[in-house]
Amino acid sequence: MRPQIVLFGDSITAQSFRSGGWGSALADAYSRKADVVVRGYGGYNTRWALFLLHHIFPLGSSTSPVATTIFFGANDAALKGRTSDRQHVPVEEYKDNIRKMVLHLKKCSPTMLIVLVTPPPVDEAGRQSYAESIYGEKAMKEPERTNETTGIYAQHCVALAEELGLRCVNLWSKMQETNDWQKKYLRLMDFISRLKAME
């Protein structure tokens, strides 16, 4: 059986095999060496993902992945008391949940390469425009996610990676190094344009 690389995360991971996605690029890069398996769950936070952990990565399996990405935090960082309140996970719990995932994966295979990925930045204006295009006057008036708060979750993810000696992709910081990152890296505005074209 070929080695497996598992991508474990939320909807960003689930959509990684769309045209031009990072999952498909990874599968192409390792096409002769390993199978890339997507385990992305739309809307999930780290609290809910823990319930899946033993099903996706069973202890005692003879076919543990050689590498796994853990990519959560975008939903955990939803603001309490706003539209996506039920997805909110306090930042310290988020960090602890990621730690539990890592420790479980290390039990599955001590040699497994584990890469943490921080949540990406939030295009607050783009999310507002999207909400207004869908809900009109009923759209949320206050953001249910902010870039600043998501950045705090990203910092905790980076700190945990350093503490555990893991590799980490600081997507939150890296994306914002590029001018006009909202339009270059996020698909939200393209989606809005397609919706308006269908009206």
TrEMBL record:
Pfam families: Lipase_GDSL
A biological process from GO: lipid catabolic process
Signal peptide: none
InterPro entries, per database record: GDSL, Iah1-like, SGNH_hydro_sf
The entry's keywords: Hydrolase, Lipid degradation, Lipid metabolism
Cytoplasm is among the record's keywords: no
GO molecular function: hydrolase activity, acting on ester bonds
Origin superkingdom: Eukaryota
Hydrolase is among the record's keywords: yes
Family: Belongs to the 'GDSL' lipolytic enzyme family.
Protein name in UniProt: SGNH hydrolase-type esterase domain-containing protein
Source organism: Eutrema salsugineum (Saltwater cress)
